[in-house]
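user: can you give me the structure for this one chain? tokens are fine.
assistant: on it. calling the predictor now.
[tool input]
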Amino acid sequence: MHDVKANKYFSRIADEATDSSFKERVYVVHEDLVGRYKTGNTKAEKVTKIIKDSVCLFGLDLDDCRGQGYDEACNMKGRLCGGQARMKSECPNAIFIHCFCHSLNLAAQNCSK
């Protein structure tokens, strides 16, 4: 976090995965993995709260967020009420970019069909 704070501006990625115990978890990444959060659901409201809490937990200013990345899930990318729209309303400088790793994975899946 020292490097992130020293540079002031940051971007972050959040993704959901189900672990081996079949519990959903949300992973928040700034420059490195900074948190794995247990969640009962992955609705946009819940994930947005987790992201905001992680930003505050590490003493970062939400106004300094310049980018946000998610996968293709509607609860995250939805332009009206998804996580990115909710975050954009609170930090308008945080541009949403679809996660490149997910884009590559989707392309590879499509090519293999």
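assistant: here you go. The beta strands are 10-18, 24-29, 33-38, 65-70, 95-98. Residues 44-57 form the longest helix (14 residues).
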